[in-house]
Structures are given as C-alpha cells and as structure tokens.
Amino acid sequence: MNNAINAICDECEQEYLITGLETENIGEDIEKTFFTCPHCDKEYIAFYTDSEIRNLQTEIRSYQWQLGKVQTVKRRDRLLKQIEQTQAKNKEKMTALRHMIENQ
Ligand SMILES: [Zn+2]
After folding, report:
1. What is the pLDDT of residues 10-59, one digit of tens each?
2. How far is the CA of 5 from the centre of ligand 1 (A)?
3. 11 alpha carbon to ligand 1 midpoint, in Å?
4. Which of 58, 71, 95, 101 is the most exposed place for a label (fewest CB within 10 A)?
5. Local confidence band at 87 (pLDDT 50, 70, 90 cut-offs)
6. Position 8 confidence tier, pLDDT thresholds 50, 70, 90
7. What Cα–Cα distance (Å) separates residue 59 from each residue in 48, 52, 79, 88?
C-alpha cells in the first residue's frame, strides 16, 4: 500500500511525505486528526471529529458500499443523493466543530 502524499512544510520548508494520519482524543468525545512534519515536528490539523461526525462518516461509507452493489438506476440515484446530503451535513458539522475548537 502506498498512498503517501508529498507536501512541503510551512515551517521548515522541507519536503516530506504524509504517510498517515494520527488521531488524539482532546476532551470529551472529540478527536483530533493530524499529521506532523518529520523534520521539525510541526503539527498540521486535518480535521476534528465528534461522535456525531464519526456516525455520519460511517453512514457515508455504508452508502458507498451499497452503491457498489446497487442493481437499479433509481436506487443508485437515491443513494447518490443520500451520500451528497450526508456529506454536506458532515462538512457543515466539521467546519462548525473546528471553528468552535479553534476559537476557544
Ligand atoms: Zn517542518
């Protein structure tokens, strides 16, 4: 498996590979997902999640899984719509949560 992403650190301006994300619990129900620069250890936040967001993510994955097995166009369209709506809702919640955490 190789899905590493090349990035350049804002802090030390060295190139590095993002090989994976780390998660850390930062208080009740909230997880921080982040990666760090291997050269200077600067931390980059990818996103924050709470249980509601994690449930939405599970829901999206389940729709995507169903999409791979779908038989009819009608059902496929309905699933695509559900994915789109759930992703929009999820994005909104993630933005709000990040805003809340970073403006504390
Ligand atoms: Zn760095």
Report:
1. 999 999 988 889 999 998 899 999 999 999 999 999 999 999 999 999 99
2. 15
3. 5
4. 71
5. very high
6. very high
7. 17, 11, 11, 13
Cα of 48 from ligand 1 centre, angstroms:
21
**CA 8–ligand 1 middle distance (angstroms):** 8
Distance 99 CA to ligand 1 centre (A): 25
Residue 7 token pair: 């990035």
* CB within 8 Å of 17: residues ≥ 6 apart: 4, 5, 6, 7
Q: How far is the CA of 12 from the centre of ligand 1 (A)?
A: 4
Q: Give the Å distance between the CA of 91 and the centre of ligand 1.
A: 28
How much is the CA Rg of the chain, to the nearest whole Å? 17
User: pLDDT digit string (tens) for 90-100?
Assistant: 999 999 999 99
Which listed CATH number (3.40.50, 1.10.155, 2.20.25, 2.40.50) goes with 1-49? 2.20.25
